[in-house]
Amino acid sequence: MSYEKVHSLLKELKLEGISRVLDSSLQNWSKGDKDVLELIEELLIAQKKENENKKYITALRYSGLPFHKTLEEFDFSFQPSIDRKQVMELKTLRFMYEKENVVFLGPPGVGKTHLAVGLGMEALREGKKIYFVNAITLVDRLKKAFVERHLEKTIRFYKSLDLLIIDELGYLPLDTEGAKLFFELVSQKYEQGSIILTSNRSFTEWDKIFEDEVLATAVLDRLLHHCTIVNIRGKSYRLKEKQKTGLVGIQTTIGRTDKLRKSER
Length: 265
Ligand code: ADP
Ligand code: MG
Hints:
binds adenosine-5'-diphosphate; binds magnesium ion; DNAC/IstB-like; ATP binding; nucleotide-binding; 5-stranded parallel β-sheet; 3 domains; AAA+_ATPase; ATP-binding; elongated; alpha/beta; Rossmann fold
């Protein structure tokens, strides 16, 4: 079979992984003493990697992750209140395999979302099903599903995930209906799959988020039963970035706030 025919068949069959390595693999093979099965194995491994990579890229696109930062990009020296070892243990994803949860607590800008995204990317790399959603968006979707009578189907989707990341719980309080639906979701995922949750509110303030102490306790009960809590106390990284570029984020004059240069102060 001609060289050209082989490449055209590989293209037709969408075997780009093999197509990419074929020439160099054939060259090395003809010089060495490997048997033909070893050559075939090498080509199939290249195709397997290509398939996994494609799957990863597609899953990343549908994951809802707001940015694609890894745990390697996180500067632990900037945030000494975080136990690096604890985050490295989370990076092994044991918590996800054991269907446990993770909660990141702390003020704005300390890296809660970055760490949640980093763990999400680790899970994606292992071919796991993940989804990232803002807490308010999630509750709005549940409410809409309830009104449109497909709540069960919607919850089934969230339940089917290996890892659901719920970001920014507590920036806005939930109304009674929203709080009940949130509780319903958390109880359905309890011991069935993992949740990573980020919040700017300490647990003692959660009755204010849910505007109902009983409901807040019920959510916390399920969420925290098997859970790693990372409590971050520190400075905002966003502020550091602004200071570095000579911009300050002090809300003084409306319209000029963030763009006020140090020299103008
Ligand atoms: P939070 O969710 O706590 O408000 P983010 O995770 O969104 O904070 O962090 C704000 C920005 O600063 C993001 O771009 C994030 O990547 C970056 N960032 C925060 N902390 C760190 C850190 N320790 N090292 C590197 N980048 C960081
Ligand atoms: Mg955040």
